[in-house]
């Protein structure tokens, strides 16, 4: 573990002190560098009549630092990520992404616990520059090792730099439950609701003469997942998202199914695979808001990704990756396809 994490974790853990047992520290550092071939660097849609998307080379780097301090009754956990991508020809798609999360919790007896958490993500460059900030208080209930329940109440602020009419803020509530059927099989369910308030006035619905006032959305997410941990690691998650708005054209419904798998192959090779299927529906027939994707790639589309990793030393892995993202807009006959090939190394240092 990087010793520079110690002062931060120690300072954060002091307010929860009082335990008789000395704090235990854990941490890790990880860095990844890759050379990428991007088949659709500008992320363009095609109608079939115009020339296809343009391919470009890029360099990608990602650094991750994690730390955990655990005392008699208190625990503090921190994570920070810094990633950058540099293109050869499409400099306007260069990106710099930072993300961090911090959580502190205190045990109240053997079954209950309370805590606070905060997270932030900032993306600069490219066509989707934004800042996403959130904080919440939570309570946990874990009567035994099989069941864990977390309830949270918090606030969120989102800033979309290309179009500030999409900025919003508001309160959020959420719940997450996990039940371990056996050491290898786990089920989880989750739900979240958020109230989003915007600056601009809402667009009135056709035939309605009165103004609806400022735009307000209700964002609901609910889903369930299954995880298997054995010779093969598998996970499957379904999520439903509904954004209900008082502004015409802003309501959207989305279904999303995600599956992932990891397996050991001969010659110390590990195969990781992930696939996603999505279905979106817009009850008003149109969707006027800019497409905001709060992830690294175009996971708002159907996707499939594969990665092969093999250790070349005790701390360094060689990695080869491929990803495919695609979607189609039937109303205007536009399609989107993007493939990214990558090769690189990952270095890790863990205490």
TrEMBL record:
Superkingdom of origin organism: Bacteria
Protein name as annotated: DUF560 domain-containing protein
Show which residues constitute the signal peptide: 1-22
Which keywords does UniProt give here?
Answer: Signal
């Amino acid at each position: 573990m990087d010793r520079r994490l110690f002062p931060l974790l120690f300072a954060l853990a002091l307010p929860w002190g009082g335990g008789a047992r000395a704090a235990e520290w854990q941490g890790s550092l990880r860095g990844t560098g890759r050379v990428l071939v991007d088949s659709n660097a500008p992320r363009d849609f095609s109608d079939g009549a115009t020339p296809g998307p343009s391919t470009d080379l890029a360099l990608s780097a990602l650094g991750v630092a994690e730390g955990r301090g655990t005392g008699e009754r208190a625990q503090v956990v921190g994570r920070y990520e810094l990633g950058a991508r540099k293109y050869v020809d499409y400099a306007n798609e260069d990106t710099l992404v930072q993300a961090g999360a911090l959580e502190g919790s205190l045990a109240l007896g053997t079954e209950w616990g309370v805590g606070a958490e905060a997270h932030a993500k900032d993306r600069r460059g490219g066509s989707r520059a934004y800042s996403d900030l959130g904080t919440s208080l939570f309570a946990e209930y874990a009567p035994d090792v099989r069941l864990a329940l977390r309830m949270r109440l918090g606030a969120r602020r989102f800033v979309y730099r290309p179009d500030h009419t999409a900025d919003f803020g508001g309160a959020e509530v959420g719940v997450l439950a996990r039940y371990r059927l056996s050491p290898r099989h786990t089920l989880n369910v989750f739900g979240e609701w958020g109230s989003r308030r915007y600056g601009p006035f809402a667009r009135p619905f056709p035939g309605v003469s009165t103004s609806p006032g400022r735009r307000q959305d209700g964002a609901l997410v609910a889903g369930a997942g299954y995880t298997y941990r054995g010779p093969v690691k598998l996970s499957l998650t379904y999520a439903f998202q509904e954004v209900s708005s008082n502004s015409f054209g802003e309501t959207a419904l989305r279904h999303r199914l995600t599956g992932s798998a990891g397996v050991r192959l001969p010659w110390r090779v590990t195969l990781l695979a992930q696939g996603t299927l999505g279905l979106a529906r817009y009850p008003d027939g149109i969707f006027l808001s800019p497409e905001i994707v709060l992830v690294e790639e175009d996971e708002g589309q159907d996707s499939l990704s594969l990665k092969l990793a093999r250790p070349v030393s005790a701390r360094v892995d060689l990695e080869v990756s491929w990803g495919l993202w695609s979607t189609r807009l039937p109303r205007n006959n536009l399609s989107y396809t993007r493939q990214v090939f990558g090769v690189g190394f990952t270095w890790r240092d863990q205490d």
